[in-house]
Amino acid sequence: MADACCSPPPLNLDRHRDKGAYRRVLWVVLAVNAVMFLAEIGVGLAAGSASLQADALDFLGDSANYAISLFVVGMALRYRAGAALAKGLTMGAFGLWVVGTVVWHAAHGTLPNAFAMGAVGVAALAANAASFGLLWAYRKGDSNMRSAWICTRNDVLGNIAVLLAALGVFGTGTGWPDVIVAAIMAGLALQGAVVVVRHSRMELNIAPA
Fold first, then answer.
1. Among 60, 69, 66, 86, which Cα is nearest to 2's?
2. How far is Cα 132 from Cα 119, in angstroms, rounded to an integer?
3. Tens digit of each residue's pLDDT (9 = 90 or more) over 122-140
4. Average pLDDT over residues 97-119
5. Interacting residues of 192 by C-beta distance below 8 A, sequence separation 6+
6. d(C-alpha 29, C-alpha 208), whole Å
């Protein structure tokens, strides 16, 4: 989930023997994650689902990782650390927003649209499965390659959690399954954001001016 996937350093493309092919894969996976982040946020708001919004944090974190890998990997440490700090702060802000959403839904006893949750959950699962397949060939590469593959694999678990929440909402007729799943996922996202911010600040302190 997010705590395991937000903290790895940007992928070092310069170490990859097949940089061109791997870079193209990262571009595709970046696009998939960015689109699904927007989709889950949008539908999550429309359907009143906190768990969809929480799951979107995984897509946001992965998109940021791939973007940092593609755009700033060759730059000086200060720029890489600055990009990571911006990522951590953004994820933290979204995480706090989701926590607030969870509290609001819990207090008001809202009932999210289980069908919308299920439909987008299936789409998110398919998107991560596609990314998983694209990164499969690199699962035994260096630690950076493996981290990208492992993060995508873990994100599938988040998608399954959303689907279980949708089934729970449909079966119980209450919003509590959605709230519980969202609270867990938001907590993991905030934990990951804290790790990223601390690590990036440490790098900024040691980076030459």
1. 60
2. 20
3. 999 999 999 888 888 776 6
4. 94
5. 2, 3, 4, 5, 6, 7, 61, 91
6. 32
- What is the per-residue pLDDT for 70? 81
CATH class assigned to 2-203: mainly alpha
202 pLDDT above the threshold of 80: yes
What are the domain boundaries of the chain?
Answer: 2-203
| Angle, CA of 116, 6 and 81, to the nearest 5° | 135
Instruction: Tell me the DSSP string of 133-166.
Output: HHHGGGTTS-HHHHHHHHHHHHHHHHHHHHHHHH
Mean pLDDT computed over 4-24 = 58
- Assess contact for 85 and 201: CB atoms under 8 A: yes
Alpha carbon of residue 181 to chain centroid: 15
| DSSP designation for 209 | -
How confident is the model over 101-111, as a mean pLDDT?
93
Residues in the chain: 209
76, burial (CB in 10 Å: exposed 0-12, middle 13-18, buried 19+): exposed
Q: Is the pTM above the cut of 0.90?
A: no
pLDDT value of residue 72: 72
